[in-house]
Structures are given as C-alpha cells and as structure tokens.
Amino acid sequence: GYRVSLQGNFFGRNHTYITFPEYNPCKHIKLDPPANIQSNVTASKCQIWWSVPWYLAEILQYELQYKEYSMSWETALNKTPSSSLPQIEIEAAELRSGITYIARLRCKVSENEDSYHSQWSEWSQTTVFQRPGIPKLSEKILNTRTMQFLFIPLSFGTLLYLFWNFKLSSSCFLTSGQKASPVLTFPHQLLSSSHSIICTMGILR
C-alpha cells in the first residue's frame, strides 16, 4: 500500500494534505474494455464472444447490453454471463425476427475476487447482428393444402349424394306400375353425378 499526500505552498506557507493515508492500487483498478467483440446468429440463438488478456480471464465478470439498432441505449436490455468465459448466448426467443440488433460489453474484476477490486470498464466497441426471418410456406404448398382440405368434405358429400339418388331411383315405379330396375336407372344417375364431380374438380383447379 501507499500513502498519497498533496504538498503545496499556500499564501507563502508550505502545507501537506494527506489525500489517502492507505492507498492500495490493486483495490482501485479500472480495466480496459473487452476487445474484438463478435457475434454469430443461428435459428435458435445468438452467440457473442470477445477477447481479454489471458491472465485476467479467470477473475473477470461481464455485463452485456443489447438493443434494437434504431433505439437508444436507454432502452437496452442487460445480460450477465453465468461464468467467467468470454462468451454469452442470447436465445432466439428474445429477439424479434428480421430486426437488426446492436450489442456492447464491459467488464470488471469479479466480486468473488479478494486480491483485486475494480470499477466497471468503459463500454466496448459494438457488434451488429440480426435474427433470420422465419421462412414462409410457398404459395404452391398453401394451395395444395387448401385443395386437400376442400377435397375431403366435397368427396364425402358427393358420395352421399350418389347413395341417396341411387336409393330413391331404386324405389321409383314406372308408369305401367312396375318397379324400376336399379340396373337401368343407376347408369343415368351415375352419369349425372359424375358430371357434377368433374365440374367440382374443375372449379377446385
């Protein structure tokens, strides 16, 4: 430790002022900010990493700030890494799709360190990243699925129509009083219904 004093001549007299009676430099450190901050974004997360001197890597703690690029730093969100490793991850759920973000970082000696104490460093240089947009289904796929959803109930309705008409035609009587033969009446009904099916499929296409 050191004793820090201030000496000077004031109004013709020499004076000495004790500024710090016991000053320990290792308890009053201000570090340089982390360097070479970089980022990489995937569909599930954003990874951010940086560089610090190797002999400080195990005793530092960090604070990350990130925000939308167009917003002010007053609206930034803070995140603290859970370890002393020079890296951090942001889950994709915390980022809006298609929006550009900017992040910065600062460091200080960990509170768990007894031999040294420091204040926060200045903020580092920034890194810019963007979460990829969520891919949309192509129009062709959407049209195919729409066709599938429409075709099932329409087909079911057509089968009910055929069954109902066949049932009615089989119970009809001819003008002579004889019952109509299903074999004779069915082809006519089937032809008419088949024409309806073809028209319906033409509309769907």
TrEMBL record:
SUPFAM superfamilies: Fibronectin type III (SSF49265). Keywords: Glycoprotein, Membrane, Receptor, Signal, Transmembrane, Transmembrane helix. Its main location: membrane. GO terms for cellular component: external side of plasma membrane. Residues 33-132 form the Fibronectin type-III domain. The keyword Glycoprotein applies. InterPro entries: FN3_dom, FN3_sf, Hempt_rcpt_S_F1_CS, Ig-like_fold. PROSITE patterns: FN3, HEMATOPO_REC_S_F1. GO terms for biological process: immunoglobulin mediated immune response. GO terms for molecular function: cytokine receptor activity. It is found in: Membrane. It is a single-pass type I membrane protein. PANTHER family: CYTOKINE RECEPTOR, INTERLEUKIN-9 RECEPTOR. This is IL9R protein. It comes from Cepphus grylle. The gene is Il9r.
